[in-house]
Design goal:
The protein is an alpha/beta fold and about 475 residues long. The chain is built from 13 helices and 22 strands. Helix 6 links the parallel strand 9 and strand 10. Bound molecules: nicotinamide-adenine-dinucleotide (NAD).
């Protein structure tokens, strides 16, 4: 006999568990189905969390070398890879175990297994062992996430890794090729560089992080060029072959081919939504041309009682966007009048330095022919940045010249990922440059660069003399 549940959430990443948790808090009886023993998804098991643990270590290694400039010299660090890996795994276990506890406290039924739609109101669940079980549901939230894209005809292997393999940290290769100069390539490239690999990045477009404002990328690119062994732009990987001591890679740039050997290769060329093997063909759920599930503002699919959130429901593929969509879906199911209509979804690249932005970008404004004013504060004029010996950063506001309203914020510099939160609040609350200028920011902090950017707009920045043109 099949069981029934009021709400079933398929996929327990930051989107799925946020949806189930809020639904339970709103009095809805909820079931979560995921293949892992605890909630967490890619973010906690194989993405954001383990990569940030390793980036924390990378920062420490980098600063221990920089300290020479400040009169402090450390001897070469000894890396105990087993202990480092264990610590990273402990972080993951602590986080996923914690979220598992939160699910129990909310009396959510957590099922470890794989769900497939039988029809629009019933699933089969295949656990690791035993016969498949049937579950009938009133509502469903699809939160199945995404997976890495592979290079055509070049499968993942012992020496050709995707982000999951790279995060396992089996060894520290002497030479490490990163294919793709996006979020993952640059973050994991940073980790392996600091651990001692000679890292080469190959990016097929003309710049790292295509689409991101050039002045922000420039700040990072300078550091990447110093630290990485090489950055190959406008270059494609056309072939990879197992060789004596790793992988022989054939690059193509401006019609010319070159070959080089690397011990290991990381492929980080983007991700694609997980929509196959779910039995979606047994429902009326529809996909868009890019393969994402089509949803409306409440995140309802073509089946009004089936919702989709997170990476599977469209760009940007970011954990915090998934969590918010999950909460919107839970509220919609509870009958609240809600919609997913953010003005600012922050994006952070956790490199050294970090890059973060939210709301309207300068590139987007140019593309859409929008009349904006950009007010930029260079961190060379920030006391806090100078004390950190990190004055290469920049903070900028994208403003409406008429209303002074903050439409977007971009930051490149250490801690940009934390600083951008103020930008999100400013954009969402429709703050003006005057609001930012009049809000007293603590001194000496990097947050003052937000206030001083607003002062730049009026030609009145205390620490950056740039009078307003009349
Ligand atoms: P990405 O889209 O950020 O970058 C992929 C890069 O690979 C692009 O610059 C692209 O031009 C390049 N590329 C594509 N094909 C190539 C080829 N054949 N040869 C050379 N270069 C090629 O993708 P990603 O880095 O794989 O990350 C995937 C997703 O994961 C991102 O969209 C992001 O949303 C998410 N993510 C976010 C964070 C974060 O929030 N900090 C971190 C990691 C991943």
């Amino acid at each position: 006999m099949s069981k029934t549940t009021q709400l079933v959430v398929i996929g327990a990443g930051p989107g799925g568990y946020a949806a189930a948790f809020l639904a339970a808090d709103l009095g809805i009886e909820a079931t979560i189905i995921d293949t892992e023993p605890n909630p967490g998804g890619v973010c906690l098991y194989r993405g954001c969390i383990p990569s940030k643990a390793l980036l924390h270590v990378a920062k420490l290694l980098s600063e221990s070398k920089e300290a020479k400039n400040w009169g402090i010299e450390f001897s070469e660090p000894k890396i105990n890879l087993n202990k480092l890996r264990q610590w990273k795994n402990d972080v993951v276990e602590k986080m996923t175990g914690g979220v598992g506890q939160l699910a129990k406290l909310r009396k959510i039924n957590y099922i470890q297994g794989r769900a497939t739609f039988l029809n629009s109101t019933a699933l089969t669940i295949q656990k690791e062992s035993g016969p498949a079980e049937e579950l009938k549901f009133q509502y469903c939230v699809l939160a199945t996430g995404s997976r890495p894209i592979s290079l055509p005809d070049l499968p993942i292997s012992e020496n050709i890794l995707n982000s999951t393999g790279a995060l396992e940290l089996k060894d520290i290769p002497k030479t490490f090729l990163v294919v793709g100069g996006g979020y993952i390539g640059l973050e994991l490239g940073t980790v392996y560089t600091e651990l001692g690999s000679q890292v080469t990045v190959v990016e097929m477009t003309a710049s790292l992080l295509p689409g991101v404002d050039r002045d922000l990328v420039q700040v990072l690119a300078k550091n990447v060029e110093k630290k990485f062994s090489s950055v190959l732009l406008n270059t494609k990987v056309v072939q990879m072959k197992e060789a004596k001591s790793g992988i022989e890679v054939t690059f193509e740039s401006a019609g010319k081919q070159t070959r080089r050997e690397f011990e290991k290769v990381l492929v980080a060329i983007g991700r694609k939504p997980n929509t196959t093997g779910l039995g979606l063909e047994n429902t009326k759920v529809e996909l868009d041309p890019k393969g994402f599930i089509k949803v409306n503002l409440q995140r309802q699919t073509k089946e009004p009682h089936i919702y989709a959130i997170g990476d599977v429901a469209g760009e940007p593929m970011l954990a915090h966007k998934a969590s918010h969509e999950g909460r919107v879906a839970a509220e919609a199911i509870a009958g609240h009048k809600v919609a997913f209509e953010p003005k600012a979804i922050p994006a952070v690249v956790f490199t050294d330095p970090e890059i973060a932005w939210c709301g309207l970008t300068e590139a987007q404004a140019q593309k859409e022919n929008k009349n904006v004013k950009v007010a930029k504060f260079p961190w060379g004029a920030s006391g806090r940045a100078t004390t950190l010996d990190r004055s290469e950063g920049v903070t900028k506001l994208i403003l409406d010249p008429e209303t002074e309203r903050v439409l977007g914020v971009g930051i490149a510099g250490v801690g940009a990922g934390e600083l951008i939160a103020e930008g999100v609040l400013a954009v969402e609350m429709a703050a003006s440059a005057t609001d930012l200028k009049l809000s007293i920011h603590p001194h000496p902090t990097l947050s003052e660069t937000m206030m001083e950017s607003a002062e730049v707009f009026f030609g009145q920045s205390t620490h950056f003399y740039r009078p307003k043109k009349s």
